[in-house]
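In response to reviewer comment 3 from the previous cycle, which asked for concrete evidence that the modeling workflow produces usable outputs, we include below a single protein chain processed end to end. The sequence was submitted unchanged, and the resulting structure tokens are shown without manual editing.
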Amino acid sequence: MTAKPLSASHATSDEFHIRYQNRNLRSHSRIGWMLEKWIGIPLNLIETLISYLLVRPMNWALRHLDGLSYKLEGTRLKVILQHALFPVIMIAGMFIGFAATDAGASLQSITTLALIPVVIGLIVAPLERLMPYSRNWLEGGNDTSVDLMMFISGAFWNGFAKYVIQTLFLVGLVEAMEAYGHGLWPSHWPALVQVFLFILIKDFFRYWLHRALHEVPFLWRFHAAHHSVKRLYWLNGIRSHPVEVVGQAILFAVPYALLQPTAEVAMVAILMQLTIGIFQHANIDLKLGFWEYIFSIGDNHRYHHYPDKGVGDSNYGGEFILFDILFGTFHKVKGERPHDNIGIGTAPNYPMTMAGLYIAPFLPDQKIWAPENAEQTVDTDNPRNNLVADV
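The workflow returned the following structure tokens.
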């Protein structure tokens, strides 16, 4: 497959009205449609408020960088940035992580959790506008509202998972391991090595969970919420169904319970995972070279979001790509850049409201999302496929 040019269109969002309405559940499912309509009223209201108070003003401000973006194309400065951004931000993230733990920051700190997405957004959102991988991914209507709500709900469901873990066997497992559990962890190793070792061990669990989410039909029902996105940008990596969030949190508690690294190592590891995760979904045109054979970032993950499952069922690594290489699920075509047509090929009509994403996996008939059940010819979730001229 030959990749199509991604920067050929110089049309900017200033020239068009962008649709800010997320696609609802199909009325083919009467029960689901009614649930979304009535139970989803407060969620839909919040989506609309976030649209007017945050998303539209943010898009308006970022559009002012478009002119500078075109001037940057083909320059030596852009080439330097394409090669240097990832390693520089990774190194900066490590220093910030260790400095934050020394200053007493922890994952239990509400301030820490609130500042992380704000700081990342202030850095990455302008970079996406200045150096976009695909200009078709610069704006997605009101998908940002849903992603922000998913971030908040994810924090809630992660908290819920902690209570589930406390009522299951993991507390007893930690207590049973207490006598010799700390001896399993190489606490005498350099702190940075401990951080990446912990990420690698967690990624082993993540790889097999992620692979199961794709290859087991029942689990795919829940993971489909993540793959419903029509563009990749820095925030939508956190779009996950609550069932997946809780299950993942419980699974990831296992290596922590068994190995018991220090809280500082776990804190820095989480920050590094977030940093790597940003480069999985960021709409930034980087030249990553050998880094893509170490980390699950850039083109690796763009292939993973292909609508064709023959390509998309690959590159499962959360942070590292090692286990994909070892177990034969690594996909990368030499000399090719992935195209920007992503989503669920068998379910292009998947709902895009938060209420719809919550309800969809529980509906018995998943075929209602198939192409033949389209109720409209307009794609309101990828506005650049249906741009309405300013009149």
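Strands lie at 16-17, 388-389. We consider this sufficient to address the reviewer's concern, and the full set will be provided in the supplementary archive.
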